[in-house]
Amino acid sequence: MRSGKGLRRDAELNRGRVVAAARAVFGERGLEAPLEDVARRAEVNIATLYRHFPKRESLIEAVLTDRLNELADLAEQAVRAPDPGAAFRDFVERVCAMQAADRAVTEGFTACFPNSPGMEEPRTRALGALDALIRRAQQEGQLRSDVTGADVMLFLMANAGVLRSTRQSAPGAWRRLVALLLDACHPEGFASALPPVPTSEELHDAMVATRPGR
Amino acid sequence: MRSGKGLRRDAELNRGRVVAAARAVFGERGLEAPLEDVARRAEVNIATLYRHFPKRESLIEAVLTDRLNELADLAEQAVRAPDPGAAFRDFVERVCAMQAADRAVTEGFTACFPNSPGMEEPRTRALGALDALIRRAQQEGQLRSDVTGADVMLFLMANAGVLRSTRQSAPGAWRRLVALLLDACHPEGFASALPPVPTSEELHDAMVATRPGR
DNA sequence: CCAAAAACGAAGGGAGCCCTGCGGTTAAGC
DNA sequence: GCTTAACCGCAGGGCTCCCTTCGTTTTTGG
Description:
DNA-binding; homodimer; about 0% strand; mainly alpha
């Protein structure tokens, strides 16, 4: 059952078909889409799907790890970029664009799957890089000083809410929200005293609570 | 079956119990909570519930019309307030607080129930007052000039997204989002060129799409 | 070539929620 | 008081999706 080796050629092939189908179905209809549809799309029997992924979560995990690694790579590139302020804004925009393009990402980036090392690793990598990026941008006076990584998580949750409503009918609406949020992060902008940011424990619990099936 | 008259005394009473129970249950667990729980909470048989509200939507409607009228009243008060800029910010904050206090409101304010005159009336009343409020605040230079009523709808959708994730674990997180959004609306703030706001048709479709049960 | 592994098709049990129907009981209202 | 509306309890059919099982057939890899 390992994803690496020890799998027969056709088994490995079918596993790939299932993951690809899940990527498509979850992307279009969300992480709660019926697994029968995934199996049908993969042209594979439902029993085969369950043989490879006994739990829905394991399939979600297989779909999302790639995306989360993309995200982490994006964050690490941003840290190394010459203009940290622009890199921060560009990063936020890109991640939100990933959410807009894929329902699985929308629901997955703000959700948390405990006991899943394959997802925790890129997640902490991304959060670490994000913190560094924010620190750099703030040191150079290009980012409002009271913004933290947790705020970016709030942005993703907010964007998820807008996308939930507007994805079909107003596919560009999220851009407007993100532009406003980034304006609020501008160091030269009007800045009121902000209410406290959630603690990392609170944020972790929030992400757990956002997991599909509540 | 009219809510006004022609109902026997005990029938009227039971109807009230059901609505009160639905307000509580939907408020705690969302608009998709099992109707059996509503009936149990009302200490009423499930059949009685269905006799009064043959469709789930009709019960939701009964619960939400009050809240929507509150919202519309709030908006109309804000229009008459002396300081339109402060009134605008206060209005947004209050509406978002209503969302934070009640899951039914969270889901209902960004959803749309077609063919429901009891809800369309306060909704259009609120939107009309909101537009007037925004115009006044902008005329007095207290609100960024490119903000529209549709942006406030986006705020509500965004807030709904944050609340979905953080309601239990970080109950104050929404305040931070709203503060940032309001900073972005400040006329003295940094203001980039914004992507286009969704049209009112798009927004209507978005709200229809947000209706429970997709 | 052949044993083992995997996939197949189909069926079925279970859970949760929807909504309806029926016979019997309570209580309102004239 | 008597008619009748409304309520009650409860059973049950339907839907969707979950996940499992079983006997059979295909494919692989040595």
